[in-house]
Amino acid sequence: MAEKTYKIVLAEDDHILSKYLSSKLKEVPGFEVYTAMDGDEAEQKTHEVVPDLLLLDVIMPKKNGFEVLENLKSDEKTKNVAVIVLSNLGQESDVTKAKELGAADYFVKVDFEVKDIVDKVKQFLGV
Amino acid sequence: MNYFVVSALVNFATSIMLGVFVVFKKRSSLNFKFALFCVSVAVWSAAYFFWQSSGDIGGAFFWLTILSVASSFIPVCYFLFSLAFLSLEVVGVNKIIMWIGLIIALSTIPMSIQGMLIAGIDKKLFFEYWPTAGSYYWVTLATFLSIVGYTIVLFYRSYKKEVGYKKQQILLLLLGTGFGFIGGITNFPLWYDIPLPPYGNILVSLYVAFTTYAILKHHLLDIKLVARRYSVYLASLATILVVAGGLRFLFLAIFKQNNIFFDITILMVSLTIAPFLKDYYYHFANQYLFSSLYDPQEIITHLSDKLRSTIEVKKIFQHITATLTRAFHAKNIAILLFVEKKKYYELRFNTGFPLTTKTMKLDGDLHSFFVAHDEPIALNDLQSMIDRSQQGTVKILKNLGVEFINPLNIKDKAVGLILMARKESGDTYNDEDSKVLSVIGTQAAIALENALLFEETKKFTVTLKKEVAQATEELRDKNEKLEKLDQMKTEFVSVASHQLRTPLTATKWALEYLRDSLESHATTEEKESLSELSVVNAKLIKLVNELLNISRIEEGRVRIDPKPVDLVRMVKTNVKEFMPLARQQKLKVREQYDELPMIALDEAVISKAVANFLSNAIKYNKIGGGLEVSIQKSGKNAVLTIRDEGIGIPKKEMNNLFQKFYRASNAVSSHTEGTGLGLYIAKNAIELSGGSLKVDSVEGQGTTIIMTLPLIGSKKIEGEKSLT
């Protein structure tokens, strides 16, 4: 039986964080990982790829994560893409806003190790 | 002593006293001339007295000679005084008349010696010794009558020209002249055997009295007013007497007898109708006989009603001036109000005075004079009552045409002044006017004071409204700014924490990567270094989190979200997590827990605090020391106690324990790392949860942390976030 492929878009402007997380995600069999370095690219990639999961940073150049989220959710093609917000903004208002815009979950990056985040992704996708 | 002796004595006494009095009152050229006239009258009167008292013909003749000579000087002195009074110069015709009079008067001396003044002395009527006119007597008589007649003409001409109080004075002098000289002239007929006794002799003193009054008093008794009053009373009395008398006559004619009841009835009816009759004649007199007269009561009542009906300053001015114009027909009226702060009078209403400035500052203590005097006063009277330093203002008022001033005061407080010009009729302001104006002044002062207070209150209300609106606007602006500032702070904290956390996250993940990738082939030292780096990074992350917590605490943005929590389980979990560290220190751990119900707590907040206490109790404990953790139910509270046998806290530093960044000196020397924020955050977290925190410690022996939480649980606090 062919292994199910999960497409994941990682929108993270910090190249170090992007490098570590994307490389760890790629180690999971069946994960296809696409990276985006700013809000516009994130929106564009998601529209192209229509991933199973978008890991979305909030503070990004060109367009912030909330704007991207809002646009994706209002687009027929991308409105059903699952989104987990990964951010170091930890205010309650940020979490609430993300969930109101349609994010499935919100993690504060500094609280987790990379493998913890990968485990959470696997758990979310049911892998 | 007969009437004629008495009349002479009265004339003498009146002339001497009034002559001296006038000069004593004011030493002026006019008054000296009047005094000279009085002396001439006094000499004549004295001679008259002695003549009438003489017991022999020789004495009578002597005194008659003195009398005749003295009487010839009377018209000249009278003429000179009159010229001075009327401000006429002794030039031209006046000079000629003066010299003629003087020459004639002086000529009576030799003429009397020659026997040409008195031809003889005889018994006439009831006079023992009465003179017969000599051939020269008619000269003195003609001179007398001519000079007096000419003077009367001069007075009359001036009376027609003059206005105001001067006119009134001239009228008084004319009346006095009439009484005096007519009375005096009654002496002459008998000189020519005309059988007319000199009953009018005593009237000479009236002239002196009238003149004295006229030249000393500036606002005079209004003759018209007196005449009106007495004519009204006389008419009322006459009517009652005629009617009552007529009725009584009819009764007698019909019934032929007196009846006391009828008389009493007539009396009662007369008394009843008397006031109505008086009013009727009063109005009749006002309407048909006298002009520019008013009913004081009606004026005062009318103004009172008008002033009661309004609180507006402008309307009050209008009512006052309308009333004053109606009553007095003053040419101009002005109302000035006293401005206490600036100490001047402000012109607020003016019907026609040529005032060029809106304000008036009074000389010297003139203002105090008006406050103290508090009665209407004629400007001329004022002039004589104040000293030289205050005359400047009086002069200005005179030039403006002011004749009467009515101070408006309430007790000792000046409200203002009413200035009035002369009456249109030319009459002076008399005593009754003064009384009416005094009452009007009091009414006006009260009405104006109330209106001004009302005006001030209105202005104050408007100002207050404006200021409140302005303050509200400013407050709104400040609130907006504060909100913006608050938002900026929140954003700053948020962004700052993000900016700090991102590199810390990168370090954390990089170290994780290195640990994973080097696990199999790294040396022990390399693994140790990686481990140390991870620990350091974790501390930095912890510091950032604690700073965020402090920011939330200080801004009241901490959220407390209580849910039912098993406190004992939570503490046990925390102790279990710290057991590896406790074992490292070889600590003897003892636990004791009472059974507790579920307590509504924000588990994250309380757990964090407990973790902090346990961390300290282990960190600062001695190797092999004891660690006791217990929870007791104490009344309505649950009490968690954590006791260690560590370094303790110096006594003098106990008060600083819960301050931000504070670490006890012995803690710093034993463990150099540490932020000094843990206890501050823990204390705030417990207090936000409705609990309290107490610390007991003895340096070198150990520390006991006592955390008390209410069994009813914590209240929910809406906030930005729970503690990190």
Description:
The complex is a heterodimer of chains A (127) and B (724). By secondary structure, chain A is an alpha/beta fold. Helix content of chain A is 43%, strand content 20%. In chain A, β1, α1 and β2 form a beta-alpha-beta unit. In chain A, α1 packs across α5. The radius of gyration of chain A is 13 Å and the shape is globular. By secondary structure, chain B is of the alpha+beta class. In chain B, 62% of the residues lie in helices and 13% in strands. In chain B, strands 5-4-3-8-7-6 form a six-stranded antiparallel beta sheet, with helices on both faces. In chain B, strands 10-12-13-15-14 form a five-stranded mixed beta sheet, with helices on one face. Chain B has a two-stranded antiparallel ribbon with strand order 1-2. Chain B is rod-shaped. The relative contact order of chain B is 0.05. The model of chain B has no long low-confidence stretch (mean pLDDT 85). At the A-B interface, α1 and α4 of A face α15 and α16 of B.
List keywords for this structure.
heterodimer; A: 127 residues; alpha/beta; 5-stranded parallel β-sheet; 5 helices; 20% strand; B: 724 residues; alpha+beta; 6-stranded antiparallel β-sheet; 5-stranded mixed β-sheet; 20 helices; 15 strands; 13% strand
In short:
The complex is a heterodimer of chains A (127) and B (724). Chain A contains 5 helices and 5 strands, in the order E-H-E-H-E-H-E-H-E-H.
Topology:
The complex is a heterodimer of chains A (127) and B (724).
Chain A: E1 6-11, H1 15-26, E2 31-36, H2 39-49, E3 53-56, H3 65-73, E4 82-87, H4 92-101, E5 105-108, H5 114-125
Parallel strand pairs in A: 1-2, 1-3, 3-4, 4-5
Chain B: H1 3-25, H2 29-53, H3 57-85, H4 92-114, E1 118-124, E2 127-133, H5 137-161, H6 164-185, H7 204-216, H8 223-255, H9 260-289, H10 296-308, H11 313-328, E3 333-339, E4 344-350, E5 359-360, H12 366-373, E6 377-378, H13 379-385, H14 391-400, E7 402-410, E8 413-421, H15 431-518, H16 524-554, E9 563-565, H17 567-584, E10 588-593, E11 599-601, H18 603-619, E12 626-634, E13 637-644, H19 665-670, H20 678-688, E14 692-698, E15 702-710
Parallel strand pairs in B: 10-12
Antiparallel strand pairs in B: 1-2, 3-4, 3-8, 4-5, 6-7, 7-8, 9-11, 12-13, 13-15, 14-15
Helix pairs in contact in B: 1-2, 1-7, 2-3, 3-4, 3-5, 4-5, 5-6, 6-7, 8-9, 10-11, 10-15, 11-15, 15-16, 16-20, 17-18, 18-20
